[in-house]
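Structure, all two chains, one model.
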Amino acid sequence: MSRRSYSRHIPDFRLMTFFAEDGKSVVHRMNPWTKAALLAIVILMAIIMDDLILLAVLYLSVLAFYAAGRLPIRLLVGWYTLPVFFVVTIAILLIFTEPGDPLASIEILGKRIAITDAGLMLLVTLLVRALAVVTLSLALFMTTRYSHMAYMVSRILPRPLANIFLLSYRFNFETSDEISDVVDAVHSRNGNMVRGAAKQTRLFAGIFGLSFVHAFERAERIAKAMESRGFSGEFPNVEKLTKPSHYGYLLVSLAILALVIITYSRYVSDLIGWW
Amino acid sequence: MAHVHLEDGAFTIEWVVIWTLIAVALIAIALYRLGGYAIPTRKLAVAAMCVAVGFAIFQIEIPVFGGVHINLTPLIGILVGPSLGSLAVLVINMFGAAIGHGGWGMIGANSIVNIVEVFLGFFIYRHLRCSWNASRFFSAFSATAVALTVSAFVALVIISISGIQGSTQGGEQTFANLLIMAAANIATGLVEAVVTGYIVSFIGKIRSDLLEMAEGEKRPETAETSQEVGTVV
């Protein structure tokens, strides 16, 4: 984790970019269009698949892809905190109320509640789905250079959204550095010793408020600089992306075939019910 | 966490498509109101900065009640208005999806919830400031508290209508079960409301022109300037 990161459970954008720009693995060399297509297919698979074993296979395949990119597994585990938190927040009450065989029970205020097998299965299935997509998404962003990402974004999104995305991608680093500097300054002056929710809240509100004011001032300067250099509403792409290789097309075709079979099995007729 | 974001796989594909189409319609309206492809450069830069600050602030944990992360979407609405704010929250959701803070397939549903926050944040603040002449802190606090409360229920309604994939429970039962989640979000949202109140008061003191859009008219600036505050910090 870089010095700038202030949370172990939120991916550090600077570290992700470091891996993307400096990595030399086979996944780094893969065509970005191929990786983006695989991400789209895995998202659809995670939504459509309902068999836990197949979902586990999908997750392990994605994890192998992540590891092939020589990306840090230990950090990934910490970064799972956020998606796990969101899934558990939604599913925690359903594991007690989903009809099924009780696995364990506790008594709260004279009322006995039980975790059911179906409820637990629901939680695990949602977790595996979410983690499969998160892992591949992180792998894509940690193995694709900014110039390639910029080219893909400018081709996929409508121009105004692409411009906001690309500008904010770069602003992220400056802004988080600035906020980190202020938080460092607060800590070095014993700011972390401030007691009381009201004082802490006001202290951090000052930091955030100043960040917004500086951000607006910087945005105004940047806008003037862009206009003075003849910005016509579109960022020029320095580096264009080539088409995927034959292997890339083959990989994406196989993934699409798997997606079609999974979709057919779920909605039309079960082709993979041999489990 | 004042916002719950849905992860991929929570909804079936039909509902993913439906919520995505609704979000696309809302974003299209926002783009149309901003002038389509001819959005002024300053607005683009301001929206991008709001995304960057919102995303960076989300990474800082406020050490109250065991640690709270906030997104400040109602504040973005107050500062840049509902149209530009809608584009900003969409891009924040894209960055969020990249790191697992909400799913890629759920960008539509998550954006609808955030657009509600931006929209209500802006209009309630504007109403309280312009019609009731309320203080900046009270207006921002109330606007954020109401926006986050309503958005917690919007999230609840979206989840109840769509149903959690794999669950056998009906909409009403899911709604009842997830009420506790909404209550927890509303409680955390109050922390964000207090923070937003302080931030708006702070901005009002040093750069009140940034609140012009939400306050309707240019209010007299205080003696302090942003330069002086910058020197102090």
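DSSP finds nine helices and no strands in chain B.
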